[in-house]
Design brief:
Bound molecules: shikimate-3-phosphate
Strand content: 5-15%
Strand order of the largest sheet: 2-3-1-4-5
Number of strands: 5
Distance between the termini: 18 Å
Order of helices and strands: EHEHHHEHEHHEH
Radius of gyration: 16 Å
Oligomer: single chain
Helix content: 40-55%
Length: about 180
C-alpha cells in the first residue's frame, strides 16, 4: 500500500476566503495524491452556461448560492477527488452540512494582507468590483471565520510556495486520517 492510499478514500474539500489558493493549491494537491480535481466555481459556470459575474449580475447572489449548493451536492456524489469550493460555499449552512457529511474539509487560512495583494491581480470576482479588497476581506473574515473554523482541518499557509503548502496539507491530512482510524 502506498502511503497516500488512506487519503484517497474521501473527497477533500478546500474552503477559505478568496485568494487563499483553493484552486491553485488544490490542483497541485490532487496531482500529488493522483486524484481528480474539481473546481466548484468552474462547475457552476458550466452548469449555468455563464460566468460567475454574469450569474451575480443577472440572477443575484442568492441564485448563485442555490446553484453552488446543487453543484457541490452533485460533485460530492462523485468518486473521491480534491474539490476547490468558492469562498462563500462553506459559509452557507446547507452547503457546509453537505460538505461536512461527505468530505474531509480543510480551511486554508492566510493573512488578509497577503490575500488583498493576491486578489488585486484579478478582476473577475463580482464581490470585489469597485471595492477596496482589504475592506471586503476584513468583513468576510469577520462573518465567515466562525463557519470556516468548523472545517475538519485548519492549515495556516502564509505566503509560501505552492509545493510547501501542498506538503503541509499532506502532513495535516495524514495526521487527521490516522487519528480517525485509531
Ligand atoms: C465568492 C468567491 C468566489 C466565487 C464568487 C463568490 C465569495 O470564489 O465563488 O465570486 O463569496 O467569497 P473564490 O473563493 O474561488 O474566489
Amino acid at each position: 500500500m502506498d502511503r497516500f492510499e488512506p487519503l484517497r478514500r474521501r473527497t477533500i474539500a478546500l474552503v477559505g476566503l478568496m485568494g487563499v489558493g483553493k484552486s491553485s493549491v488544490g490542483r497541485r494537491l490532487a496531482n500529488a495524491l493522483d486524484l481528480p480535481f474539481r473546481d466548484a466555481d468552474n462547475e457552476v459556470e458550466t452548469a449555468a452556461g455563464r460566468s460567475i459575474s454574469d450569474i451575480f449580475g443577472e440572477l443575484g447572489e442568492a441564485a448563485f448560492r442555490e446553484g453552488e449548493r446543487r453543484v457541490i451536492a452533485r460533485l460530492l456524489e462523485e468518486t473521491p477527488h480534491v474539490l476547490a469550493t468558492g469562498g462563500g460555499a462553506f459559509n452557507d449552512p446547507k452547503t457546509r452540512a453537505l460538505i461536512k457529511s461527505k468530505a474531509i474539509s480543510i480551511w486554508l487560512k492566510t493573512d488578509l494582507e497577503v490575500l488583498a495583494r493576491r486578489v488585486a491581480r484579478k478582476d473577475t470576482r463580482p464581490l470585489l468590483i469597485g471595492k477596496d479588497p482589504m475592506e471586503v476581506l476584513r468583513a468576510q473574515a469577520e462573518a465567515r471565520y466562525p463557519a470556516y473554523a468548523e472545517a475538519d482541518i485548519t492549515v495556516e499557509t502564509g505566503d509560501a510556495a505552492h509545493h510547501v503548502t501542498v506538503d503541509q496539507l499532506l502532513r495535516a491530512l495524514s495526521a487527521f486520517v490516522e487519528e480517525q482510524e485509531a
